[in-house]
Amino acid sequence: MSAVRPIEDGIVKDFKVNLSYGAYLHLDEILNAQHPVSVPEHHDELLFILQHQTSELWLKLVIHELRAVLAHLAKDELRPALKGLARVKHIQRTLTEQWSVLATLTPTEYAQFRSFLGTSSGFQSYQYRAVEFLLGNKDRRMLQIFHDQPEAHALLDDLLGTPSVYDEFLRYLARHGHPVPAAVLDRDVTEAWSFTEELVPVFTTIYEKAEQHWEAYEACEELVDLEENFQLWRFRHLKTVERTIGFKRGTGGSSGVNFLKAALDLTFFPELYAVRTEIGVPR
Questions:
Q1: 283, pLDDT greater than 80
Q2: With bands split at pLDDT 50, 70 and 90, how would you rate the model's confidence at 5?
Q3: How far apart are the C-alpha atoms of 67 and 85, rounded to whole Å?
Q4: What are phi and psi of 217, to 5 degrees?
Q5: How many Cβ atoms from other residues are within 10 Å of residue 50's Cβ?
Q6: How far is CA 3 from the centre of its chain?
Q7: Cβ atoms of residues 115 and 42 within 8 Å
């Protein structure tokens, strides 16, 4: 039996007029966008560059999907919003698993080209900050880092003043009869979300009467999945950095591992975790 598969007659071979796969995807640009800076060029720097470039591409899609989720929630289109969140969760899993590839980079290998990175750092990823803003972890100070990048600054400035996914979900709940406090609905959305005790009874009712509030209940669990995935990504990032550089300072000036550990205490939807303590408790 031949190991060669015949090329069918109907397969397009002339691309003087027809659109090709490479042209559609602009592969010439993408595949020539890796420019190692180590001298002499170190073999493992390509891995380091591709890891971060592919992460940025996935983050671009996460931003695209979360902005669509915001629009759907604002129009009371919960099911399409949940579909968008489900897609984001799959992207998150891919992003988390990517750390296992970078973790094959040993401390000795990384040390041979790390100094060439200068002050560049993942801390400066404006798309990562955009995702945080979309999920409610807003910090106006972050805009200072992007003064020299007008497009990045404009994106973050826009998202700073845009309701987060959580804000829009709470507004959705209010429009559907749930007693969300007026102070929550009228809050300054440029500020980071902070725990609001008055919301816990709202979620307690949704969870304890799930059959009556199934769509809201399902949405709550989707958001919890989203946050858990984000925390798993942060943890894998932390452990990859720890095994690669130990407790050295980050190239961008941070304390490194200790700085990343502090991020594990950040939460997007604290009331959705607090409600778990209340469920089933006699009142």
A1: no
A2: confident
A3: 11
A4: -60, -45
A5: 15
A6: 43
A7: no
Residue 179: phi, psi to the nearest 5?
A: -80, 65
- Nearest Cα neighbor of 229 from 221, 241, 240 is 221
Helix and strand numbers, DSSP H then E, in the chain: 13, 0
C-alpha span between 133 and 190 (Å, rounded): 9
To the nearest 10°, report the CA torsion of 86, 87, 90, 92.
-100
> What CA dihedral angle connects 193, 198, 204 and 206, to 10 degrees?
-70
**Sequence letter at residue 75:** K
Q: Which two tokens stand for residue 70?
A: 């915001």
Residue 38 confidence (pLDDT) above 90: yes
Question: Would you give the distance in Å from CA 239 to the centre of its chain?
Answer: 18
Neighbours of 104 (CB within 10 A): 9
- Measure the CA–CA gap between 128 and 266, rounded to whole angstroms: 15
Max CA-CA distance within the chain?
74
Q: Round to whole Å and give the CA distance between 125 and 128.
A: 5
243-266 b/e (C-beta count within 10 Å ≥ 16 → b): ebbeeeebbbeeebbebbeeeeeb
**Residues in Cβ contact with 152 at an 8 Å cutoff, skipping those fewer than 6 apart:** 126, 146
Residues 6+ apart with CB under 8 A from 86: 222
Q: pLDDT for 156-202, tens place per residue?
A: 999 999 999 999 999 999 999 999 999 999 999 999 999 999 999 99
Q: Residue 33 and residue 50: Cα distance in Å, rounded?
A: 9
- Band of the pLDDT at 155, cuts 50, 70, 90? very high
